[in-house]
Amino acid sequence: MARSDVARGARRRPGRRRAVAVVSALVAAAGLAAAGYAVTSGTHARGDSPARTASAATTTVVRTDLSDSRTHRGVLGFGPGITVKGAGTGTVTELPSTGSTVKRGRQLYAVDDRPVMVFYGSTPLFRTLDKPTLRGRDVTVVADNMEALGYDIGPRTNSGASGPYTGGSLVDRTGDVYTRTLAAAVKRWQKRVGMTPTGRLEVGQIVVLPGPVRVGAVTAQLGDPVAGPLMTVTRTTKAVSVPVPATDTDGITKGAHVTITLPDSREIPGTVTAISQSVQGGGDSPVGENTPPTLDVTVAPSVLPKYDTANVEVRFTSVARKHVLAVPVGALVALSGGGYAVQRTDGGYLAVTTGLYASGMVEVSGTGLTEGLRVVTAS
User: Fold this and answer.
1) At 128, is the pLDDT very low, low, confident or very high (cuts 50, 70, 90)?
2) Cβ–Cβ under 8 Å, residues 355 and 324
3) Pair 154, 190: CB distance under 8 Å
4) Which of 55, 129, 165, 225 has the most crowded CB, counting CB atoms within 10 A?
C-alpha cells in the first residue's frame, strides 16, 4: 500500500469511531427511557408499553370546566299553525290582517257583518246555549271566559260537587250549568262588544282557541261561505322548533339553557320549553328516501330576535364537568395493552383514566397527576 493510501485510511478511522459512539449512545438512551417507564409506571404489566413516542413539545395539566355540546339546525318562528274553521251559515264579511294579535273576548272575523269572538279553552261551542237546563264542558268554557273578562256569573256548581265550583273542568267532565245568572252575564258582554244582546250563544258566534293567537296565513276571501277553513293562527311569542334525532335527545331536558346562533352570527340565550313525545319520520319519505326519526324540541329565546322567521342553529349542552384536570387530547399516550398514560418531561409515564372529551381537551385523573404538571404532547 502506498504511503498516501495509508494516510487516507488513518483519516477515515476517527469518523467511523464517532459514528459507532453515536449509535451506542442512542441505544443506551433508549434503554434508559424504557427503564424509566418501567419504574414510573409500575402498575402496568410488562406488555403495557406506549404505542408511540412523544415529541418534544410540552403542555400543562390544567384545572378547568368541560362541557359536551351538540348543535342542531332549527327554525325560528311562532310555532306550528292551527287551522281556524268557520261554523254555521253566512258569508265572510271581515277578516283579520296577517300578523295581527287577537286575545280573549276580541273579534277574529265577521260573518254577515256580525262579529265572531275569541274565547280560550279546549272544547268548541257545538250547540246553542239558551236554556238553564244545559250542562257541559262547552258551558264551562263560557263560564271560564265570562269570569276572566270580569263578569259576575253567580255560584258555579257541578253534578258531583257539594260546594262552589273550583275550576274542575279538567276533573269533572260533566261541566257547568248554563244558569240564568251566566246567561245574564253573556247578555251584558254581548252588548258591550257589539253583538246582539240576547244572552244566548249560537254555533259560529264564538271561536274557542288555546290562548292569544297571532294571525298567520289567511286563506279565505271576503264573500266566501263561512263553513270551511278560514286562516291559520299561531302562538304570539317567538320560538325555535328543532328536529333532534330521536337517538340524540339524551341530556336535553325541559328548562335546559341553550345557545341560539342567528343568521347574522349573533348568539342569544334560550331555554328548552317543550320536548315532543311524538316521533316524526323514521320511514320512507314522499320522495322515497329513508328519513331518520326525530323529536321536535321547542326553544324560547331569552332575547327577542328581529326576525319573524329564520333558519338558526341551536347548541345544546348535555354534559358538563366542573373543576376537573384536563390535557389536550394529543398528550395522551396509547398503551399497547390498553388504556392511556401521559409522559412527564423527565421521560417518566403516569397512567391516567380519561373522562369527558370536549373541544380538543380530555378530562384525566390518576396518581401523581397535579395541576400545573408539564407533560409531553404531540406537536
Assistant:
1) very high
2) yes
3) no
4) 129
Which pLDDT tens digit goes with each residue over 315-335?
A: 998 777 899 999 999 999 999
Residue 211 CA to chain centroid, in angstroms?
Answer: 23
pTM: 0.60
Q: Please give the angle made by the CA atoms of 115, 138 and 225, to the nearest 5 degrees.
A: 35
What is the signed CA dihedral for 17, 20, 25, 30, rounded to 10 degrees? 180
Contact 189, 105 (CB under 8 A): yes
Please give the C-alpha separations between residue 123 and each of 64, 66, 131, 159, 274, in angstroms, as whole numbers: 54, 49, 19, 19, 23
Distance of alpha carbon 351 from alpha carbon 369, whole angstroms: 9
- Are 16 and 23 spatial neighbours (Cβ–Cβ below 8 Å)? no
Most confident of 14-18, 171-175, 204-208, 276-280: 204-208
Q: What percent of the chain has pLDDT over 70?
A: 78
Residue 81, CB-side half-sphere exposure with 13 Å CA sphere: 15
Alpha helices in the chain (DSSP H): 3-40, 137-148, 180-193
